[in-house]
User: Fold this.
Amino acid sequence: MSTSLTRRQIAKGAAWAAPVVAATAAVPAYAASPAPQYYIGKSVTANYIRTGCTINQFYLSTSVPVSPEVAGFSVGHIGNTTVGNTTATLSGLTFTFAVPRGMVNNPTVDNPAWTISGPAQQSTLTGLRGATFNTTNYDIYTLQFNGASTNPVVGENATQTWPGTAFTVTGTSGSYCYSSGTIYSGYNLRSMTLTNGRAQWNNYSNIESRPINQV
Assistant:
């Protein structure tokens, strides 16, 4: 099962006044001044294979584009191209995913720009637009991005992703006896600014719930 927050959905978010806006976990993924409008995009695919109650393979990836999004993490603009052209600088980019406890053991990530830690346990996660998810009886894993901290903001229809942000996590030998379930996943960002000063994000999260299905 593949799901994503699309740019069209992001574009329905609130618009804020220029020159600088601040986004927190309680606001949409879409920070905007009248022209251009900026968005943060992502693609996530997750599934698993099991025999009985034993997980043979767990798979979570941001490397596969989920239309209309590009792979990985991206920062783009909608509207006036000349004004939109700018460079983003980010700090503290992580990716969190929470799976039913015991579903996956010792997951690994294929991209050396990311390091993975966990599992941790906590009762809730805060995500997109301030949504709160009950993660009791979940294992929570965090990936820390160690790659480039600056990159040009791309146009709305661009195919480029932020360099190094696409990854695939795999794991085996977990225990899960159901044919489908719910996981929580998304990016967290401590801060990001644009060189043109037109938008700023602080303590941003786009964690969402998504189904995970047996394949």
Summary: Residues 1-34 have pLDDT under 50 and may be disordered.
